[in-house]
Model the fold of this input.
Amino acid sequence: MLYDCFLYFDEKELLELRVNLLKDIVDGFIITDGNLTFKGDPKPFTCLDTIRELGLPEKKIQVLHVELPSKEVAPNPWVREYAQRDALAVGMRLTPPDSVFFFSDVDEIPKPEAVLQAVEIAKANPDRCVRLSMPMFYGRADLRVIDPKGDPSKPPNNWTCGTVVLYNHLEETPSQIRMKDNGLVVGDCDCGWHFSWMGDSARMKRKLTSFSHCYDDIPNAHAPAYSQEMLDFLDSYKALPGSTDPLGRKDHILQAYPHDLLPPELFKLDRVRNYLLPDG
Done:
């Protein structure tokens, strides 16, 4: 059996796109929804209600509500990110022992055919995890982010965190697997789409003040992630070909990406299209 597993925050449109894209090839979805942001601020559990609102196939979806450690217990935001990711294993271990899993963050969306290809490779290489190579997109779904002077095999030019594993790999946590360097990489930036930093300035600021880098001086960013200056930058930011990414990094440049290489479901779902391709 094949399962798609991912973390959920509030990315309603990406949830709708991902489930509709993969529902015909997977036997089920396993999703974790936390009671805190990674920064540690309270948030409601919204995933189940959103699934019902969107009319997604509830019988194929298992949502795990995760009680994350507070700021007082765990000042480091990464502790909460790892905890929410590793909670996926609770649902994964309840599946049959011949199960195969694709797991990633909700915005790391694989092509269905790439997942199926990776599953066969994983079965033939049971000691290795299999990673899918995909481009990254910031601001809009038709704007890929690149570092013109960077290594073509590494971020932001190439994203390989989406991973296919077998049941026996669950001896390690999903976070440990995600960080391992023994993966076989499938494709050449053509196995999916990492839709990061999408939406209007309000959505971007919500991410900035919630994610695991919220206290960081992110290298080459316009300002520290925790600063008012960075929030003000997002208020005036507009994603255009040739511009920097939403953090103002001059080694993260936006480049036009053809619409015919985007998932066809994106254009069939009005809410998703309006979110990922506003005014376009």
In short: DSSP finds ten helices and twelve strands in the chain. Residues 40 and 48 are 21 Å apart (CA to CA). The mean pLDDT is 95.
